[in-house]
Design a protein that fits this description.
Blueprint (H helix, E strand, L loop, with lengths): L1 H19 L6 E8 L6 H21 L5 E8 L4 H13 L4 E4 L3 H17 L6 E4 L16 E3 L4 H13 L6 E7 L2 H17 L4 E8 L8 H10 L3 E4 L4 H12 L6 E4 L7 H5 L7 E5 L9 H12 L7 H16 L4 H8 L3 E4 L2 E5 L6 E2 L2 E8 L13 E9 L1 H4 L12
Parallel strand pairs: 1-2, 1-3, 3-4, 4-5, 6-7, 6-8, 8-9, 9-10
Antiparallel strand pairs: 10-14, 11-12, 12-13, 14-15
């Protein structure tokens, strides 16, 4: 009987060990779906290079023993093109897809995967969202197959307005955003949260511009100047932000501060230059001088591509998947999704946790300000000599917002 018990114990240990390393040597294909053409091509190209560099880095040392392979697909920032790109990714063997630019394409992926995964048991596909931040994606439209790694619009506004609560110079605010779901959410949450935290603040403008279509923002800047605003809040990104900030400098809008979501992104630092010193803020999960593990990768990226690694949330794509593969002992998206729920890892911005209720990553957020690089913050942006210096860090609980998600999990 003792021999039988020992044999059973050894068999169990072997099974567990085999399960833990069942994925070793596998190639994990990730379909990357974002713009490589049009006005937002520079943003997409930078992000694709980041995925490729991080895949190379994780392939050398990931704990799960897998090999990551990136399949790049241009969606032209279109939901329709996104659906076609998703089909192409699946046809090429990808069981993981990633996207970040635009909540319209993000919703297209969620809708398509809900249908695909229901019809194709055993061939499910998981969506890792690194930048599309419409809160609805993890609330009314939440999906078991969708995990978001960026802080959503409401979380960032929670941190931003908490900071602005203690900024008495903020008196007249102009809201300027892109005319799609994310932009409207920025406007809504700014008004709602300022009303509670700073009821004395006056909203002097609430304007929207077409997404990725405007080349001259001078008329919009003229309206901002005429309003008498001392502060602009904008969720604009890509060329829509770079051109806005350039137009503000060209118009001599020197007394107006910009509170942004994405001024660290491709093109914006060059547009700001020395003229924007002390005038532009960003709310986000990181900055240019973060330290390990992301700083060495940022240095490698700059050396290799002569460009800045701007989307450090992409690091979490690989770090969380790698940890989930180990936890699940598998690369099967169904098992990996279950392993991701509630998963915690130590990262460049503190401990992060994938909230089980809605698949929204909980993480610390920084408020940073555009200033001359040097001292503790020597790494500059786009060779401008300037960088975003952290002025405030908020623990995850500060920016965390409740969810209305009613998650439907597979049986």
């Amino acid at each position: 009987m003792k021999w039988v018990m020992r044999a059973m114990a050894m068999a169990t240990m072997a099974t567990c060990a085999g399960g833990a390393w069942a994925q070793k040597g596998e190639t994990v294909k990730i379909g990357w779906i974002d713009p490589l053409s049009g006005l937002m091509a520079a943003v997409g190209t930078n992000q694709l290079k980041t995925f490729q560099l991080l895949a190379e880095d994780f392939n050398k040392k990931n704990a799960s023993g897998v090999k990551f392979e990136i399949i790049p697909l241009d969606n032209k920032l279109s939901p329709q093109e996104t659906t076609a790109a998703l089909r192409s990714a699946v046809d090429q063997g990808a069981r993981y897809v990633t996207q970040g630019n635009g909540s319209g394409p993000a919703l297209a992926i969620i809708d398509a995967l809900e249908k695909h995964n229901a019809r194709n048991k055993g061939k499910e596909v998981l969506y890792v969202n690194y930048a599309a931040v419409d809160p609805d994606l993890t609330n009314s439209k939440c999906s078991y197959w969708h995990f978001r790694l960026d802080a959503d619009t409401s979380m960032k506004m929670e941190a931003l307005t908490t900071f602005m609560k203690d900024a008495p110079e903020v008196k007249k605010v102009y809201l300027f955003n892109q005319n799609y779901s994310h932009g409207h959410q920025v406007s809504k949450f700014a008004k709602d949260m300022l009303k509670i935290k700073r009821p004395d603040v006056q909203i002097v403008g609430d304007d929207f511009a077409p997404l990725a279509q405007v080349r001259d923002f001078a008329p919009y800047v003229a309206k901002i100047k005429q309003s008498g605003a001392d502060t602009v809040i904008t969720g604009n990104w890509g060329s829509d932000l770079a051109l806005l900030l350039k137009a503000a400098n060209d118009a001599g809008l020197n007394d107006v501060k910009f509170y942004t979501y994405y001024a660290f992104g491709s093109g914006a630092p060059t547009a700001m230059g020395p003229q924007s010193s002390g005038k532009v803020y960003v709310v986000g999960y990181g900055h240019y001088n973060m330290g390990p593990p992301i700083q060495p990768l940022m240095a490698e990226f700059k050396k290799k591509f002569h460009d800045d690694l701007t989307q450090s949330s992409i690091y979490h794509v690989f770090a969380l998947l790698d940890a989930a593969f180990v936890k699940a002992g598998s690369t099967d998206p169904v098992k990996v999704a279950a392993a991701l729920e509630g998963l915690k890892i130590k990262s460049f911005n503190g401990e992060v946790e994938m909230r089980k209720a809605d698949h929204q990553l909980q993480q610390g957020l920084y408020i940073t300000k555009w200033e001359k690089a040097g001292g503790k913050f020597p790494v500059d942006a786009e060779n401008t000599g300037y960088t975003f210096v952290p002025v405030k860090y908020y623990e995850p609980y500060v920016a965390s917002t409740p969810t209305s998600c009613q998650m439907k999990r597979p049986s």
